[in-house]
Fold:
Amino acid sequence: MPVIKADPFDFPFDPSGLGLVVIDMQRDFCEPGGFGETLGNDVSLLRQIIPTTARLLAGFRAAGLPVIHTRECHRPDLSDLPPAKRDRGQPSLRIGDPGPMGRILIAGEPGADIIPELYPIAGETVIDKPGKGAFHATSFGAVLADKGLKQLVFAGVTTEVCVQTTMREANDRGYDCLLATDATESYFPAFKQAAIEMITAQGAIVGWAAPTDAILQALDA
Ligand code: TIU
Structure:
C-alpha cells in the first residue's frame, strides 16, 4: 500500500478510497469585506495558502481522485441560522446583512462563493453547510459513502474552526483524516499550530498531518 510521509507516522492509503476535502475557501473568509473581516480578522493571512492549495487540488485532479468543496453559508430566509450563531458577539455586520460582496454568508451571494483561484471544476461536489462541521445538516456523509471514500485529505480554512471540526466529525465516523499543513490557515497562527498538534498528538488521536509536497509525491508514485 502506498504511504504519505506524515506526522505522527506514515499514512498508508488505498487510492480507490482517497479524496480531497477543501473547506470553506470562500470570498467571505479570504477577501476584504466578508464574514471573516466583519469578525475583526486580517484576511490576508488566509490568502497565503492559495498557491499551495491550488497545487494540492491540481494533484488530486491529475490523479483522477474525487474532490469535495464546502461552503459555510445559510439560506436567504435564514431558516437554518440559529439565533445563537447570528447574535453572538459584536461583528461589524451580522450574517444575512448586506455587505460589499452581497449578504454576509448567504448562499448564492458573491461573498459565499469559492474564491476564483480554487474554483470547483465540473464533476466536483460542493456542499453548502450551515455549521462549522461539514456533516451537520448536510448530505456530506451520504456523498462520501456514495463515492466510496474511506480516507480524506483536508485543506481549507480555518484550521481550528471548520477544518478541525469536520476532521473530528469524520474521525468519529471512521474516516482516516490527514491535514495538509501548508494548505490550511487560521487568522491566528498560534491556533493553527495548536490545532495541528491537537490532531496528531496521542498517536493521531484525530488524524495525520503532512505538507502538500509529501502528499503530491505519494500521489505521483
Ligand atoms: N471564524 C473562523 O475562524 N472560522 C469560521 O467562522 N468558519 C470557518 O472556519 N470556515
Observations:
- The chain has a mean pLDDT of 98.
- DSSP finds nine helices and ten strands in the chain.
- The longest helix spans residues 189-204.
- Residues 24, 29, 39, 72, 132, 157-158, 161-162, 187 surround tricarbonodiimidic diamide (CB under 6 Å).
